[in-house]
Design a protein that fits this description.
The complex is a heterotrimer of chains A (260), B (268) and C (656).
Chain A lengths: L2 E11 L2 E11 L5 H11 L19 E4 L2 E4 L13 E5 L6 E3 L2 E2 L2 H7 L20 H11 L6 H5 L1 H4 L11 H12 L8 H6 L11 H5 L6 H18 L1 H10 L14
Parallel strand pairs in A: 1-5
Antiparallel strand pairs in A: 1-2, 3-4, 3-5, 6-7
Chain B lengths: L26 H23 L4 E2 L4 E2 L33 H12 L2 H10 L30 H21 L10 E2 H18 L2 H9 L8 H15 L1 H23 L7 E3 L1
Antiparallel strand pairs in B: 1-2, 3-4
Helix pairs in contact in B: 1-3, 2-4, 4-5, 5-8, 6-7
Chain C lengths: L5 E4 L2 E4 L3 H12 L4 E4 L16 E2 L11 H11 L6 H20 L14 E2 L9 E2 L5 H24 L6 E4 L2 E9 L6 E9 L5 E5 L2 E4 L20 H9 L3 E2 L4 E8 L13 H4 L3 E3 L23 H7 L15 H13 L9 E4 L6 H7 L1 H11 L8 E10 L2 E2 L13 E3 L16 H23 L8 H16 L6 H15 L3 E2 L1 H18 L12 H25 L8 E2 L7 H4 L1 E7 L5 E7 L5 H4 L4 H7 L2 H4 L7 H6 L3 H4 L1 H7 L1
Parallel strand pairs in C: 1-10, 2-3, 2-11, 3-7, 11-18, 19-20
Antiparallel strand pairs in C: 4-6, 5-6, 8-9, 9-10, 12-17, 12-21, 13-16, 14-15, 15-16, 21-22
Helix pairs in contact in C: 1-4, 1-11, 2-3, 3-11, 5-15, 8-22, 13-14, 13-15, 14-15
Classes of the chains: A alpha+beta (260), B mainly alpha (268), C alpha/beta (656).
Chain lengths: 260, 268, 656
């Protein structure tokens, strides 16, 4: 079924660039990444593509194919018609290094702000006892391959760069949820989830869940449950009243300081 | 060419196109906006109509008028009594419940997604640039109020019980004994979907057991959570179906009450 | 030119950010050393994420009879007794602690009913032993270690005001050369030279200790489960720095890789499919593995389908299904079936789990396999069988190291994980890799830290060495005319796949060596178009040099070893030879980019470790003189059986 596909690939660096047109051979069973590799091997040897496992397990080859954020290695050519021109661009939310490769260091900086797993220090390695039903929730979130497609798609930063400081993005709000639901974790990240990581900016329009290649239900299982937990900490008037009456003090875990 | 480059200042790819999506991404928000608008218009007209809401013979009360607390309510329609004397129909007869029904749906996590996308276009579809220059999400008044969803849920539980009572009344035939008409089934179906929607609520899921760190220490709550989570995964479907059944059951009762046709009885 | 090079100073530089590299870096940092982690790809993307099945550790959570001795025995058997027994011993003893430690870092393993870490069955392991998370154990491991690095950085941010003061990750950075210091013959590590992939800028890490954790060499083969990073960088860096590579002929072909569609040929299908009940069938629908159980394994494996099926529920009273033989055996059997004309339409065999488990259970136990086949091959594994065939997966050979510290023969150089050699002998058991990374990651991190602490003066990097390293790296860019690196890489892969693949012949390997020689000359003249910023053509041109030298080691060693053992199957020498078991093959760098090979005797196993085995089993592997003096040994008993010939009959059949 080999045919020549028409590709429009964004090429450039430091922000400046344009869509370049190519004709590339396509064979049966191939994915977009195969076709980009053929382009690289035959016509554009310096075309920058970031990829690694080519099996949807490492989350390196994130890009936008016909405007949709996807992994190039998991997008089969058979979902497009042979006549269709494929527009392939880098992820728009992150600065471009070159061609289809973006600088995703934003995400690593955000990861460093979240207080890490905090087990009870009296539990020694080997003594953890957890039931499967209790670890199911964090396990779902730990399927995350950090492709950062959710971060790229989320309109809170995609369309509003001014929110980059205040918003950790779906991947890292999910990381907060993962730790909050970890049966052996003892920290309380509810307040910083709202105040420092911008959970309130999320308007649960679910694009993060839509683009997740691991099909993690980010919004329903992580972000909304986290919002509900934040309500329990900050907004529920009954809880507030109860705190006043019983003089309960919350032990909120502070955000980790960044680089000076 | 082989000069060592300095680390450049990096910026995003300068692409002016709003999106390169080729699929009809604008369809879904349009459909949502249309359906929601139709429903709101219909409901507004109906709650201010002030008649054709109760079929005395068959004991059918439309959910839009339950509980009917105005002194104007027709005899037999006020299950919780009449709380104040005649008020002009600018105030809907079921004002007490309607506030909470609307509040519950408006602050619902699913509907929020639907109307943010459909009306506010923030964003209209994934990876499509939104039209606003500024965005503060749900961090400020009035949208910070969305955090009160759980209180609307508590109220929705009470309303659910009331609607269940109303549906049960619909199984009383003209002679007061057990009977089934098409209207009884319509009300029953409606109340089932209302419960499906109400119990699938994200707040409900949180309150039941979602807030716990260890499910294993609370097996009953966990069991409930798994059931509510099943409903929650279908929250969107229940949201739309129950919206539809609300409107249809009201329409049905309106037609019967207005005398357009009489309710076909299946049993008694 | 050297003024354009960024100079950074560290105590320990770890090259590679997979499981072993991160574990080593964490240990070095915990021992107070300023540590750099260098990664060819982004942080958290290393090849460890591909590991699916689990991490072998004799915790005894599922079967309390399991202990380190049983694990040690399984590992030695799997490696056909060529393993560095000291490594196998340390590995079996320390793996449980390393797994528990990982859990304390936040890893969330699947659980048993009583809340402990669950363990699953795997090929070659006598008891359920693999700690796992569904079929994405490697991802869990790398994420946990990654998050530990972040936690350490957070502590430094609070304490020192800079999260990167003591441990820093250099993502998308490639090391092209190790820099040495000292007189000829007594050189030691002084640093590592390389470039940042994004800008192409050169960088020198000045450091007295370098830990190689670069993984394997799979990209020298055409059909492989390995990613682009697996270009044998660490193997080649070690060679060029003067260290030795051990037993490079042993390359594991995983029996089950995808065979269709062509673009994903080689992609791994986890062994857990078989561990959880999947069976192999040929085109006639027959479970052919029953025909291929070698004598050495016969006592432990079921002879009928009924017994094999009972084993999943009752392991105490039944023997294991032959689908769970060590990987080399299964790979050869599949190869034999395909050659005999009983293969699947696309040249593999059928791996079926759809008729063995309910759909729901498949989805729960093998979610990423379901996803992989659905998305890439349009096959629903809950309804249809998969088509699978052997794929190049792992190299058992690697840098010769000291078992206790991971130190290579060059002072200051350490190696750990797949790039190191010895631990797995001639064949690695599934699940032993992840535990290897943790056990020896910690040991080499500690070894490097102690080495640095003991130093009196830091080594120095000479300008000459730096200038040369930079010049070599720039050559492909400066050449206007020359072949494309992509073309040469593709030829190399074909040569290795076809001539030094699963079944090897003397004549073919000789041809391969001639071809490799020609390729080396051509590779020295490749040209990469474009500039230095994120230029994959240039990167490949530099990696090519590493792949070629490693491929030559593999081919030379494979030609030299005249027997079949584990991941090395000779058509012309189909039997396993007790005499060859006493020999390690050592590859070292020779003049002008070539390599040389020599034989080196193995170190005899300690008596108390030997005594963990039944004497009758040892006789199948060892010569009489090695066994003299062991309790229970008698010369007459030795004469009763001739070990090698008969035992490997299926392997010989496979070669025909």
């Amino acid at each position: 079924m080999g045919y020549k596909a028409a590709l429009r690939v964004w090429r450039g660096d430091a922000g400046a660039g344009e869509l370049a047109d190519y004709q590339v051979e396509v064979n049966e069973g191939e994915v977009v990444l195969d076709v980009l590799h053929r382009l690289q091997a035959t016509q554009a040897s310096d075309l920058a593509i970031r990829w690694n496992c080519k099996a949807g397990k490492c989350g390196s080859c994130s890009m936008e194919i016909n405007g949709r954020p996807r992994l190039a290695c998991m997008t089969r050519m058979s979902v497009f018609s042979p006549e269709e021109t494929l527009t392939i661009t880098p992820m728009r939310t992150f600065p471009v290094i070159r061609d289809l490769v973006t600088d995703v260091s934003f995400n690593y900086a955000k990861a460093r702000e979240i207080p890490s797993f905090t087990p009870d220090p009296s539990v020694k390695p080997g003594e953890f006892r957890m039931q499967q039903i209790d670890v199911n929730r964090p396990q779902e979130f730990r399927k995350c391959i950090e492709c950062f497609l959710c971060q790229n798609t989320c309109h809170v930063i995609r369309d509003h760069t001014e929110n980059e400081q205040a918003f950790a993005g779906p991947r890292f709000l999910m990381r907060v949820a993962e730790l909050e639901m970890h049966p052996a974790d003892t920290a309380d990240r509810r307040e910083i989830a709202q105040d420092d990581f911008g959970l309130g900016l999320c308007n649960i329009t679910k694009c993060c869940s839509d683009v997740c290649p691991e099909h993690i239900k980010i919004t329903d299982n992580a972000l909304i449950p986290m919002k509900e937990r934040v309500v329990g900490r900050k907004y529920d008037p009954l809880v507030w009243l109860g705190d006043k009456i019983t003089r309960r003090a919350h032990k909120d875990t502070p955000k980790v300081p960044g680089k000076k | 060419m082989t000069q060592a480059p300095e680390v450049p200042a990096r910026s995003r790819a300068q692409i002016s196109d709003r999106t390169f999506r080729k699929d009809p991404w604008w369809q879904a928000p349009r459909i949502t906006a249309t359906l929601l608008t139709i429903w709101v218009l219909y409901a507004t007209v109906r709650v201010f109509t002030g008649h054709w809401y109760f079929v005395a013979k068959d004991h059918y009360l439309t959910p839009f008028y339950s509980p009917c607390v105005s002194g104007e309510c027709v005899p037999g329609s006020s299950s919780l009594g009449q709380w104040w004397p005649a008020v002009p129909p600018v105030i809907p007869y079921a004002i007490v419940a309607l506030v909470f029904v609307l509040g519950f749906r408006t602050t619902c996590y699913y509907y929020r997604r639907a109307y943010y996308r459909a009306f506010w276009r923030s964003p209209a579809a994934c990876a499509v640039r939104e039209p606003h220059a500024k965005y503060t999400g749900e961090t400020r008044f009035p949208l910070i109020g969305q955090n009160l969803h759980r209180y609307f849920f508590y109220a929705a539980l009470l309303i659910g019980i009331l609607l269940t009572y109303d549906a049960a009344q619909g199984f009383r035939g003209p002679d007061g004994n057990f009977g089934i008409g098409i209207g009884s089934l319509v009300l029953l179906a409606n109340v089932i979907f209302i419960w499906g929607y109400t119990l699938g609520c994200h707040s409900c899921r949180h309150i039941t057991a979602g807030r716990l760190k260890n499910f294993s220490k609370h097996p009953f709550r966990y069991w409930l959570w798994t059931k509510f989570s099943w409903l929650n995964a279908r929250h969107m479907q229940f949201a739309w179906i129950s919206l539809g059944t609300l409107m249809l059951s009201d329409l049905y009762i309106m037609l019967v009450a207005s005398g357009a046709f009489s309710d076909p009885r299946i049993f008694n | 030119m050297t003024s354009e090079i960024d100079r950074l100073s560290y105590d320990v530089v770890v090259i590679g950010a997979g499981g072993s590299g991160l574990r080593a870096a964490i240990e070095a940092r915990l021992n107070g050393k300023k540590t750099a982690i260098i990664s060819k790809s982004l942080f958290g993307k290393a090849h460890t994420v591909m590991a699916e099945g689990g991490c072998a550790a004799a915790m005894g959570n599922v079967n309390p009879k399991d202990n380190w001795q049983v694990h040690f025995r399984d590992t030695m058997r799997g490696g056909k007794f060529l393993n560095n027994w000291r490594m196998a011993e340390l590995h079996a003893k320390e793996a449980p602690d390393r797994v528990w430690e990982l859990e304390a870092l936040g890893a969330v393993f699947d659980r048993t009913k009583d809340g402990k870490i669950s363990q699953r069955n795997f090929g070659g392991h006598e008891y359920p032993r693999l700690a796992h998370v569904g079929d994405r154990t490697g991802l869990e491991m790398i994420r946990s270690l990654q998050q530990k690095v972040v936690a350490l950085q957070q502590a430094d941010a609070v304490e020192l005001g800079d999260p990167e003061a003591m441990i820093k990750v250099y993502a998308e950075t490639t090391i092209t050369e190790l820099i040495l210091d000292g007189p000829e013959g007594a050189q030691r590590i002084a640093g590592a030279f390389g470039y940042f992939r994004d800008t192409g800028r050169f960088v020198l890490f000045e450091a007295p200790a370098v830990v190689l954790a670069t993984g394997g060499i799979g990209k020298t083969y055409k059909v492989t489960s390995n990613s682009w990073e697996y270009t044998g960088d660490g193997h080649a860096l070690a060679l060029r720095a003067g260290a030795k590579l051990l037993n490079m002929e042993f390359v594991q072909l995983h029996p089950t890789g995808m065979v269709w569609p062509p673009s994903v040929r080689g992609l791994l299908v986890t062994e857990s499919v078989r561990g959880d009940g999947g069976v192999l069938r040929n085109s006639e629908g027959k479970r052919f593995m029953f025909d291929y159980v070698p004598d050495v394994f016969r006592p432990q494996y079921a002879e009928t389908e009924e017994e094999a099926d009972r084993w999943y529920d009752d392991q105490a009273n039944n023997r294991r299904p032959p689908e769970l033989l060590p990987r080399d055996e299964v790979a050869r059997s599949i190869n034999a079936e395909v050659k005999a004309g009983r293969g699947s339409p696309h040249g593999g065999v059928f791996l079926d789990v759809s008729t063995r488990l309910p759909a729901e259970e498949i989805l729960r136990k093998l979610p990423s396999m379901h996803h992989q086949f659905k998305e890439l091959a349009d096959v629903d594994i809950t309804k249809e069988p998969m088509e699978v065939g052997p794929t190049c997966h792992y190299v058992m050979g690697g840098v010769e190291v000291d078992p206790d510290t991971g130190a290579a023969s060059v002072p200051g150089l350490f190696a750990v994980g797949e790039v190191s050699g010895g631990m797995h002998g001639s064949n690695r058991l599934g699940g032993n890799s992840l535990s290897d990374l943790l056990v020896f990651g910690r040991r080499s991190g500690l070894g490097a830290a102690e080495y640095v602490s003991a130093l009196e003066a830091r080594p120095a990097v000479s300008e000459a060495a730096l200038t040369e390293a930079a010049a070599v790296a720039l050559e492909p860019l400066e050449r206007a005319e020359g072949e494309s690196p992509y073309a040469i890489h593709s030829e190399l892969q074909t040569i290795m796949n076809d001539l030094v693949g699963l079944i090897r012949r003397e004549s073919e390997m000789k041809t391969a060596l001639v071809e490799l020689d020609k390729l080396r000359t051509r590779a020295a003249q490749v040209s990469a178009a474009g500039g230095r910023a994120y230029n994959p053509g240039w990167h490949l041109a530099l990696d090519l040099r590493n792949m070629l030298v490693v491929a030559e080691c593999v081919a030379q060693a494979a030609l030299e070893r005249q027997e079949s053992r584990g991941g090395h199957t000779r058509d012309d020498y189909p039997a396993m030879s007790p005499e060859w078991r006493k020999v390690n093959l050592i590859c070292s760098a020779a003049a002008e980019g070539t390599v040389s090979l020599k034989r080196q005797p193995i170190i005899p196993m300690r008596t108390e470790l030997l005594e963990l085995f039944d004497i009758s089993e040892l006789k199948k592997y060892m010569t009489d003189e090695e066994l003299t003096g062991l309790s229970g040994y008698s010369a007459s008993a030795a004469a009763e059986e001739t070990p090698s010939e008969a035992s490997e009959a299926p392997a010989r059949k496979a070669g025909e």
